[in-house]
Write a structure and sequence with these properties.
The chain is mainly α. The chain has one domain (16-202). The chain has eight helices and two strands, in the order ββαααααααα. The protein has helices at residues 21-29, 42-54, 56-65, 85-104, 112-120, 132-149, 170-186, 188-202, and strands spanning 9-10, 13-14. The protein has a two-stranded antiparallel ribbon. A hairpin with a 2-residue loop joins strand 1 (9-10) and strand 2 (13-14).
Length: 226
């Protein structure tokens, strides 16, 4: 059977729908990709491969919940053996994460930054730059839990969290997402927020309320849920 879906890629150029987060991201990011006959150095290839691997846990969690974020286009069968393979794969993975982020926005709970600062216990404000990647990771983790349960945080509640602005370059996006991905899988504060949200959802949080319902405190949240 012929695949009737519109392809989103033509070479290294994004031709997908303008509503996609990838449309805006690609406009800035593709200008930073090696073009024409310019090939990355071995060190550049290794940096791209390292970045691709480091943001993998975050991408894997998003893709499991939102398989539609995987962009259509040329398969990476030759992958990382090609000079541009690692960098192009990294570029695509960044865009897919950004599309996942956009799809999860209806599930962002505005209290997550405060819960994260509380769970971190460092005395830093939720708006602290040092906490930014941990807050971002906790917000995504909480949204994934809510999305699996089909519980949205409807407006005006979702207006409370504004993700940090990141310069539109492969290097800047990779550096930021590596921090977020590391926190997503390794931060105790993120795990406490994740458990807190799970406990709230198990207790019957109604995502149809106009104002987000309170979740249990981190200390009373149950750590057990399959």
């Amino acid at each position: 059977m012929t695949d009737a879906r519109p392809h989103a890629w033509r070479g290294n150029r994004w031709t997908g729908p303008r509503w996609s987060a990838a449309h805006g991201a690609a406009a800035g990011l593709r200008q930073r990709l090696p073009a024409g006959r310019t090939l990355p150095t071995p060190a550049g290839w290794l940096r791209a491969w390292h970045g691709y691997r480091r943001i993998g846990p975050l991408w894997t969690a998003m893709h499991a919940a939102l398989p539609e974020i995987a962009l259509t286009g040329p398969a990476l069968r030759l992958g990382f053996m090609l000079p541009l393979g690692a960098r192009f794969a990294l570029y695509r993975r960044i865009i897919e994460i950004r599309d996942g982020h956009l799809a999860l926005r209806p599930y962002f709970h505005p209290e997550v930054p405060a819960w994260t600062a509380e769970a971190e216990g460092s005395g830093l404000d939720a708006a602290s730059e040092r906490l930014a990647p941990i807050v971002e990771a906790a917000t995504i983790a909480a949204a994934l839990e809510a999305a699996r349960s089909g519980r949205r945080c409807t407006p005006p509640g979702c207006e409370g969290y504004v993700p940090p602005q990141v310069r539109a370059s492969v290097e800047a996006e990779t550096a930021w997402l590596m921090q977020v991905s590391d926190a997503f899988v390794g931060s105790a504060a993120v795990e406490r927020v994740r458990r807190r949200v799970r406990a709230g959802l198990d207790a019957g949080y109604d995502g149809t309320d106009r104002h987000p319902a309170p979740f249990p405190s981190a200390d009373t949240a149950s750590p057990h849920r399959s």
